[in-house]
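Is protoporphyrin IX containing FE placement plausible here? Inputs below.
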Amino acid sequence: MQTQKGKLELGREYPTPDEESAIQAIEQMTRQQVEHNYQVGERLARRDAHAKHHGCVKGEFIIEPNLPEEMKVGVFKESGKKFTACIRFSNASGNAVKPDTKGDGRGMAVKLFDVEGEKLLEDEKKTQDFVMVNHPVFLIRNLQDYVEFFAAIIAAKGSLPFKFFFPGLNLLNWRWQEFMIATSIQRKKVINPLAIQYWSMTPYKFGDRAIKFSAKPSANNIFDKKISNSPNYLREAMVEYLKSQEASFDFLIQFQTDAERMPIEDSSIEWKSPFHKVATIKIPPQSFDSPEQMEFCENLSYNPWHCLQEHQPLGGANRARKQIYESISQLRHELNNVPKVEPNEEEFSALFGSK
Ligand code: HEM
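Reply from A.M.:
I modeled the complex. Tokens:
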């Protein structure tokens, strides 16, 4: 491991002694929220975050030909290799009926099938997930803050949690940076989920180095600029586009090159290092919004820890996600009385294979 002039080391995690209790508190609050929504709602237990999907689509994840040796790591080790991918596009809110016209983050979760190698979780043995949102940084600096944030979100009932950003009269306690991140996410105008860039926000291992990753729409995608007032306009825009056209994304990585300015533990700080293209995501024309396809999408489980050892998630937010995503996915599958199983490429392609 390379050592920096400062006290932090590249690629190294710095867990805090109190984080286990913060993770327990977040897990407990999240489970309560899922149970509460299930009781008062339509008796379908949904994800506590990113509850509404615009759909899952079938794509191809093609590793760049002629990658330099330093980038031939994990799923990227074989240049030119093609993986089938199931890609879920979503709104960030835990409210599945919030109209798309309201400001929100937007998610893109990519699941690769038939990935060989040592996996970090037991529940999915052959998949690799890349989970992203349409902003480069996360609005929470550490897990203690996340506990306060979550409590404020519940109290705010779907509005911006001002109590978290401005807790009391002491200006020194105001969280201006977090407020700016939240409002810039809310204000983004999205014409189509296939037209915007997504980022991992949090860091991951890339062999013995650390990276963040991003999916950027290719310059060839051409979108109608109109935004309708429909509550589901994002799904409708995807359906319309994929009737006749292919969408593609460049999949990019950036290395951590300075441990102080590009920290592992604080994901609210944007890393400033060049991005390198390591794969292309191709989404061919298709239809993806039948009731069976939507149900398949609902019952999937994405988890940043569904990954090869070489791509291990790093930093506090990711350490919390290991336990929480697993717990919430278990809970919603139990409440919905559906099996929580690893999807396989054959069943996915049978359902999503044709136009
Ligand atoms: C401590 C931090 C975080 C917590 C506690 C948290 C919690 C959750 C939970 C409970 C789910 C639903 C899991 C399921 O039922 O399958 C979820 C989904 C999701 N989260 Fe997070 N999250 C955190 C950070 C992040 C970050 C930093 C990102 C940025 C990429 C992110 C992006 C997503 C996306 C895109 C989904 C939807 C995945 C899908 O399509 O199924 N989350 N999150």
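Short version: The domain at 19-352 is CATH 2.40.180.10 (Catalase HpII,  Chain A, domain 1).
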